[in-house]
Amino acid sequence: MSKRIDVNDLNVYYGSFKAVEGVSLSIEARSVTAFIGPSGCGKSTFLRTLNRMHEVIPGARVEGEVLIDGDNLYGPGVDPVLVRRQVGMVFQRPNPFPTMSIKENVLAGVKLNSQRMSKSDQDALVESSLVGANLWNEVKDRLDKPGSGLSGGQQQRLCIARAIAVKPDVLLMDEPCSALDPISTLAIEDLIEELKSEYTIVIVTHNMQQASRVSDKTAFFNIAGTGKPGKLIEYDDTTTIFTAPKVKDTEDYVSGRFG
């Protein structure tokens, strides 16, 4: 189910502004890859190119290739809606649909893709997705209550359950813990560790300790100055990036001597 990602010479534009320049990297299936770097260096923009979410912004476009198991997401005739089903996304702030119950939240993406399901199949999918997001035991007795009534950490796990219910190959997470307390953060980190047995996971994080704890590989992005594009500076095993980086900019950033 899990898929490998290959990016070849990707440039990302907003109108005439080049936000990200010349990124090439490969992400192994069933691994966790962290993107780190200062604010404004393009890491979240680049993350959103991996499921064509950035196109939602008027004037946004890319040059280059993003391949998932050899298939170019930007190839002619590729439907971005299908891409987003294959490559799920969890955002910075938990965003369960406030008017929907916990159960309806889990099924929202599946229904959006107009998959018809029997009630027993729906119930089974809700349970397996919530089990997969480590949330089932906490909510199984209140599935018809609003998702917005959960704590922040539970809401974020509900969003992860919603993302995995459509059975994607890849899960993108854009700073999934930045709005959470330390205990909820730990719960999400443990969950990421469990999910990587089934999914290819890419996470953007400002928290370098988090990157070092959860990821197998780390990509460091940087920006040369205001108005300049973000670039991939170094990409390696996480241990190498944090203990023996090859580029001085990376070393300065991870050791806190940066900017």
**Count of strand segments:** 10
Average pLDDT rating: 93
Total helical elements: 10
Structural class: alpha/beta
- Cα shape: globular
CA radius of gyration is 18 Å
Give start-end ranges of low-pLDDT stretches.
none
Structure, described:
- The protein has 259 residues and is an alpha/beta fold.
- It has ten helices and ten strands.
- The chain has helices at residues 43-49, 80-86, 102-112, 119-132, 136-139, 152-165, 182-195, 208-214, 238-243, 248-254, and strands at 5-14, 17-27, 32-36, 60-68, 71-72, 87-90, 170-174, 200-204, 217-223, 230-237.
- The strands form two sheets. The protein has a six-stranded mixed sheet, sandwiched between helices. It has a four-stranded antiparallel sheet with strand order 2-1-4-5, covered by helices on one side.
- Helix 3 (102-112) packs parallel to helix 6, helix 4 packs across helix 6 and helix 6 (152-165) runs parallel beside helix 7 (182-195).
- The termini are far apart.
- Keywords: ATP-binding, Nucleotide-binding, Translocase, Transport.
- Residues 5-248 form the ABC transporter domain.
- One of its GO terms (molecular function) is ATP binding.
- This is Phosphate ABC transporter ATP-binding protein PstB.
In short:
This protein has 259 residues and is an alpha/beta fold. It has helices at 43-49, 80-86, 102-112, 119-132, 136-139, 152-165, 182-195, 208-214, 238-243, 248-254, and strands spanning 5-14, 17-27, 32-36, 60-68, 71-72, 87-90, 170-174, 200-204, 217-223, 230-237.
List strands and helices in order, with pairings.
Elements: E1 5-14, E2 17-27, E3 32-36, H1 43-49, E4 60-68, E5 71-72, H2 80-86, E6 87-90, H3 102-112, H4 119-132, H5 136-139, H6 152-165, E7 170-174, H7 182-195, E8 200-204, H8 208-214, E9 217-223, E10 230-237, H9 238-243, H10 248-254
Helix pairs in contact: 3-6, 4-6, 6-7
